[in-house]
Amino acid sequence: MSGRSSAITDEEINELVSKLQSLLPESRRRPRSSGRASSSKLLKETCSYIRSLHRELEDLSDRLSDLMATMDSNSPQAEIIRSLLRP
């Protein structure tokens, strides 16, 4: 075990909050003059953004499933979709 403390410093927290803020679309649109949002507000925005991404993913997945169910499995379009879904 190293001698370094496992506690996170205020500086590290501020750096992580800044990085998180740069990832959120709403935060990127905010004018720089308005300053940085509070950490609690930023965490709430992050949770809301993740929930919206999850809903969007579910919607897209449902739409893709519906599309694949109505498509001829041997069609060129079906093959394109399958190729996009392969890792």
UniProtKB/TrEMBL annotation:
GO terms for molecular function: protein dimerization activity. Coiled coil: none annotated. GO terms for biological process: regulation of DNA-templated transcription; regulation of growth. InterPro entries: HLH_DNA-bd_sf, PRE. Keywords: Growth regulation, Transcription, Transcription regulation. PANTHER family: TRANSCRIPTION FACTOR PRE, TRANSCRIPTION FACTOR PRE5. Belongs to the bHLH protein family. This is BHLH domain-containing protein. The lineage of its organism: Eukaryota, Viridiplantae, Streptophyta, Embryophyta, Tracheophyta.
